[in-house]
Known about the structure:
Helix content: 25-40%
Distance between the termini: 27 Å
Strand content: 25-35%
Structural class: alpha/beta
Largest sheet: 6 strands, mixed
Number of strands: 16
Shape: globular
Number of helices: 7
Order of helices and strands: EEEEEHEHHEHHHEEEEEEEHEE
Strand order of the largest sheet: 1-4-5-6-7-8
Amino acid sequence: MEKIIILDVKFQFGDTKDIIHPVILLDDNEMVLIDCGYTGFLQNIEEAIGEKGLDCNNLTKIIITHQDHDHMGALAEFQKKYPNIKVIASETEAPYITGEKKSLRLEQAEEMQKYLPEDQKDFGRMFCEILRNVEPANVDIRVKEGDTFHWCGGCEIIETPGHTPGHISLYLKNKKTMITGDAAVLENNNLVIANPQFTLDIKKAEESLLKLKEYDVDTFICYHGGVYKLD
Length: 231
């Protein structure tokens, strides 16, 4: 049994409705969750997994594609409730997830705060506080470009820097599928760079997007936007 299961985690912040798409890789030996939502989203993710007929108690690993709070915010909650889960992240990104280094997104938000117009400063302060409240979490396995795992017939780590320096995507060769994290998002049925205004290195992000398209893939799974299939 080898399956790629896309979760649809719907939520609302204020008047804004949104959806994120964490992914489950499932085979006879492993149940791997890729990214785990915002701080406080443990229950949201559990419910989304339950809707697919799966049980979080069977999770073996969580992969974090990068340090942003909408991807690793609930990680510490998962580790407390399911202590046997092993966490995987890139060598570059891991220190930001564990709290060894200060979040680059927080550094960026604090710097931008200086230049926000007065009517946006309250929102800027609130966003900085949200980022400060992300709880650090342990990383058990630190990976790099080309590392492979046996999940779902074979899964390769692809370094896709730009959005953050250590961002990774996952290539499932046998399934001709790429799980992009935020290296690509789906907008108007096009694969594009996620939030260019917040991307830490736009040139590298552009290179990473081109890199993803060079693989033998017919399905891209984007955390924001969902599934993009080539004709």
